[in-house]
Amino acid sequence: MERIRDVQHLDHVPRPCEHFDLIGGTNTGGIIAIMLGRLGMTVDECIRAYRTVAKRVFIPKRNAIITARSNGALSAQIFEEAIKETVREFCTDGECLNRRCNGLSTPPCEHSDLLFREQACTKTVVLALTKDNIDAGPTLFRTYDKSTSLKDCTIWEVARATSAAPTFFKPIKLGREGIEYIDAAFGYNNPCDKLIAEARNAFPGRSNLQILSVGTGLRSVVGMKNTRPSIIEALQKMATSSNEVAAILEDEYGDSGQYFRFNVERGLENITSSDWDQDQDSTISAHTNNYLSQKSRAIDKFVKTFTSGNHPQNGRIWVGEGIGKTQVALQFAYWVNNNLPQYSIFWVPALSEASFKHACTGIVRDLGVQRVREDEDDMGLVRRYLSSREAGPWLYVVDSADDFDLVFGSDSVPGQLCKHFPASDIGTLLLTTRFGRVAQGFTTRRDTIEISQMEAG
Question: Which residues cross the membrane (predicted)?
């Protein structure tokens, strides 16, 4: 991402969710996919968050011995708590975004059970297997899925499912049917072919995919001490299958410039997940940096291809569900926060009247604004205050304004959210929507920027 920043002359290192239409993985890759895709982290934030989780989680239970009926050598409860903390720190709820963007010292986030499904984020996919039928192929947990069986799964539950490697963690029951899931690394340690197929389904009719595959550096077994021989055997097959998938994809895409894989080839053979410490962290970093230095020319080629006119570029967005419009608006909010510190930033979801009211109530509480009339509600209070010079410059983001009747009113929906939008010559109002009709209705109040369709990447 730093190379992309340099090539595109950006003033910040972009987030992967701004450049990729779909991010996926399994096990460690699944956790990272959730951090980068569902939670929209920067690469640096992801590294820091993953290290924090790993240092807490990858410590074997005292006297842990793996047996055929073992619940795992690592604590599932500690893992769940660590992921919940990460979710709270990088919560994408509108009210929490307001607090972070404005640096407000407020009560801690209460959204540790944030749902995995989120149509507005970059499409994120993680894989897991059903424990009782591992030959059935992987289950794909999608942020953009609309089926009912897994609709209530939280971020931490999906992270547990994709990480539930036998001997490490006990399986987790999820969904309406309470099916037990384990990680998909046994047979799908390199899920790239499955994710390519998923991308083709998610973006039908688009053959010019841009694929970046990042390996874990496995060349021989990377396992735990005290592990049964059968598991060692499976891990060996897992490492072999990963290389086989990579070889098949290399043959399929050749020098087309569509497929790039980076995988540390030497130095990580003896790293064990259960011995995470500072020395191991340094070893991984050293070997990875050495590998990337050797692959500098290949990385330059990827960046050049990725940022060329024939592929997705920053600032484009595909008009449809789950396109990441919220992430684009979020990045703009971060830019304003970093470059225009005099601006206050307010994030108001327009998914429903209730979500809009809730956000306004949070703004009133955080700003400590006083009512001038007893019958003045929070929406009217926010509009009045932000429309005054007293409020100073601001950015007001109305996110996911997809319901025309809700925003502008109709015979059946008399309420109009737009009448509560503030107006000021020193304020900026940004509205995100999937529908041109809403954008056109908004042009009488603000200029509309139409963002062109984006190819899958």
Answer: none
